[in-house]
Design brief:
flat; alpha+beta; Immunoglobulin-like; 19% helix; six-stranded mixed β-sheet; single chain
Length: 450
């Protein structure tokens, strides 16, 4: 009998660790961090209870869990314990102390002439290379007056009431010129579904694009001629629209297109579907080890089929698992004359204290004002159609939705690292039901009467 009991105990000791939880994050037991929180993401076995530093962790019905721990400067010892295991797993995370951040100062410079080195150079509102601060994208050879420097940027004098900023490495100084660029002519032409506005100068000059509730304001600045030399075209906004700026030497052509009128569903519209990540770029990893790139692709393929059934011409950045750069995604969309761009993603939790009831659900991002209406329509359709939490419509400077020559949104369908959302996105019908909701959101935007 004693021998049988010993064998049973040995069996239990052997089998319990194999039944214990698996951590997806963190990957290593010893790490160095610059973040405020450490995230512990993984999954447990049936009826297994998990504690982290003696705090019980919520576990979803599929075993998924996620928990954040506030880090202090220096070494943090974090114990993760299972009810199936007598010995906790110890994680040591060293948090670097965040010292006083250097605040760059503005240096005033003697005004000098510079030129832009390449197309698509951002002209920004602030001397920072992130955020919603782009005023336009300048063309190679554009001449600028620089009169200040801060944080790796030059301040650009546009007019007596307006300045901008360009990265220092995106421009170079050129000799001063005796003659300022000259204005030649401007004209506007209106067609059934578009308007074309042309401004011609002897050289390339900086420009900005602003929008208010009713108009698009296209402005070209000629500060070499006078500090108040600003040429403005006020363009009435169509209800649904996109626009594009092209330049040849000193001629600017600004074209505003109304979204094509559609009688039947989405017939004839060019829609670009972009499954986020791919190849070596995995995206976020879920509590049970799912890769975001795979779920994105499943949703996108379902969406392609549904949109085609509605009559749309659908193009994709990838239809298999492979890496595609952000620039190539935008290039493909433009080459195919896309009217609408939809990027498919799942979200991850940022560097904050996690709340499993708040950090979950669907959010939709846009950059340009012309895309807000589509973002709202798609979000409403998804949260209603698949019953996810409404995590809001937001703005963000994502590369694939910055272009103005299509209506672009990025959809975060659910949170990869939220245990409750993991039950949803691991469901067999999630890709198709999500795609159906997105397609209906697009249809409601394009043709609300259908």
């Amino acid at each position: 009998m004693r021998r049988v009991l010993i064998l049973f105990l040995l069996f239990v000791i052997t089998i319990l660790p194999s039944m214990a939880f698996e951590l997806i994050l963190p990957k290593d037991k010893k790490t160095i961090s610059n973040t405020e929180y450490a995230f512990f993401v993984g999954h447990a076995s049936n009826n297994e209870s998990i504690t982290i530093n003696d705090e019980k962790v919520f576990t979803a019905q599929n075993g998924a869990f996620a928990h954040s721990v506030k880090l202090r400067n220096g070494e943090n010892r974090i114990a993760v314990k299972s009810s199936y295991d007598f010995n906790p797993k110890i994680y040591k995370i060293y948090k670097n102390e965040i010292k006083n951040i250097y605040k760059p100062k503005l240096v005033e410079l003697t005004p000098a002439l510079y030129k832009v080195l390449k197309d698509n150079t951002p002209l920004r509102k602030t001397p920072e290379d992130y955020g919603m601060n782009r005023m336009s994208h300048l063309f190679e050879g554009t001449k600028l007056i620089v009169d200040g420097e801060k944080n790796g940027f030059y301040r650009v004098f546009l007019s007596k009431n307006k300045t901008g900023w360009v990265a220092k490495d995106s421009v170079e100084a050129i000799p001063e010129e005796e003659n300022a660029p000259k204005f030649i002519t401007m004209k506007s032409e209106t067609f059934k579904n578009a308007s074309i506005h042309t401004l011609e100068f002897t050289e390339k000059l900086p420009y900005t694009i602003d929008e208010n509730s009713d108009e698009i304001l296209f402005k070209v600045y000629n500060p070499q001629a006078a500090e108040d030399s600003v040429y403005t075209v006020n363009i009435k906004k169509p209800q649904k629209y996109f626009y594009k700026t092209v330049s040849s030497n000193g001629t600017y052509v600004f074209k505003v297109n109304a979204l094509p009128y559609v009688e039947n569903a989405l017939e004839g519209l060019n829609i670009f579907v972009d499954p986020g990540h791919g190849g070596t770029e995995l995206g976020a990893i879920g509590c049970l080890g799912d890769k975001e790139k795979d779920i994105n692709l499943k949703i996108a393929l379902e969406l392609k089929n549904l949109l085609e059934l509605m009559g749309a011409n659908v193009y994709m950045s990838r239809e298999v698992d492979g890496f595609v750069s952000l620039d190539d995604r935008v290039k493909m969309a433009r080459e195919n004359g896309s009217n609408i761009f939809v990027s498919i993603h799942l979200n991850s939790i940022p560097d904050i204290k996690m709340d499993i009831h708040k950090n979950r659900g669907t959010s939709v991002y846009y950059y340009n004002p012309n895309s807000k209406q589509l973002a709202e329509s798609v979000l409403d359709s998804i949260t209603t159609g698949i019953n996810t939490r409404n995590d809001g419509v937001r703005t963000a400077s994502f590369a694939v939705i910055r272009p103005t020559d299509y209506v672009g949104i990025l959809v975060e369908t659910a949170y990869m690292t939220n245990p409750l959302d993991s039950v949803l996105y691991r469901g067999e019908n999630f890709p198709r039901e999500t795609a159906k909701a997105i397609s209906e959101g697009i249809l409601n935007y394009v043709n609300p009467c259908k």
